[in-house]
Design goal:
It is built from 9 helices and 8 strands. The radius of gyration is 17 Å and the shape is globular. Bound molecules: adenosine-5'-diphosphate (ADP) (2 copies).
Length: about 210
């Protein structure tokens, strides 16, 4: 199955993608995680991306295109869930073309709908593990007791000022892609509020319907 998880920062894309990976054997391809790894290792890509990520802006399309396409190719063009890609018209057009060339079009774009006030609460309490990249939430999904607290930090771009900018970038550049996918009959909107398992059940329902109609 070839999926995109779509939605604003903090909607739960990463959380749901990881569950789909664990339980459905799909490979999670998260451009944000790949970029953060590059920043940490100060690779050429990391150096180019740094100022954009820190400001809560999108990294230029040309820098993320190869990341996404190489990761999809590594998985043999199937059984993946894209998390955080595409985020612009250009990225969506490239993705369509790239997958069509291989005759492996997307099965669905699952858009997690979450109101802004919930997003802000989720992001202000999001924490990440500096070494594993694992995401936690101080209230809803706290780090287990055996995880050393010194590795649990807040992402720099989860500070309130940067979050506001990321939400406005989302509204201007990314949200319009819903229309692009709706026109192609791929958009599936899922209520992203409530508990993590409740949201997962709704995602599974969508996948069951897709399988039934295949
Ligand atoms: P979130 O999960 O909060 O939506 P991500 O971890 O996906 O955030 O992305 C973090 C940052 O990495 C973004 O704010 C942006 O700077 C960069 N980034 C990730 N994916 C893309 C993309 N597809 N296009 C451009 N920039 C991206
Ligand atoms: P995204 O990848 O869309 O930016 P994340 O998966 O990182 O979002 O989730 C953002 C924060 O909200 C994380 O701290 C995560 O643990 C938490 N979270 C995710 N889904 C839910 C949920 N359904 N209810 C409460 N908190 C959630």
């Amino acid at each position: 199955m070839r999926l995109v998880l779509f939605g604003p920062p903090g909607a739960g894309k990463g959380t749901q993608a990881r569950l789909l990976a664990e339980r459905r054997g799909l490979v999670q391809i998260a451009t944000g995680d790949i970029i953060r790894e590059a920043l940490k290792n100060e690779t050429p890509l990391g150096k180019k991306a740094k100022s954009y990520v820190e400001a809560g802006e999108l990294v230029p399309d040309s820098l993320v295109r190869d990341l996404a396409e190489n990761a999809i190719a590594d998985e043999g063009y199937d059984d993946f869930v894209l998390d955080g890609y595409p985020r612009t018209d250009q990225q969506a057009a490239w993705l369509t073309e790239f997958l069509e060339e291989k005759d492996r079009p997307l099965d669905a774009v699952i858009s997690l709908a979450v109101p802004d006030e919930v997003i802000v609460r989720r992001l202000s309490r999001r924490r990440v593990h500096t070494e594993t990249g694992e995401t936690y939430h101080l209230d809803h999904d706290p780090p287990p007791d055996d995880v050393d607290p010194q590795y649990i930090v807040q992402r720099d771009d989860d500070q309130p000022e940067t979050v506001r900018n990321r939400l406005s970038v989302y509204r201007d550049e990314t949200k319009p892609l819903e229309e692009y996918y709706r026109e192609r009959g791929l958009l599936q909107t899922v209520d992203g509020t409530g508990g993590i398992e409740d949201v997962y059940d709704r995602v599974e329902e969508v996948l069951d319907d897709l399988r039934a109609s295949a």
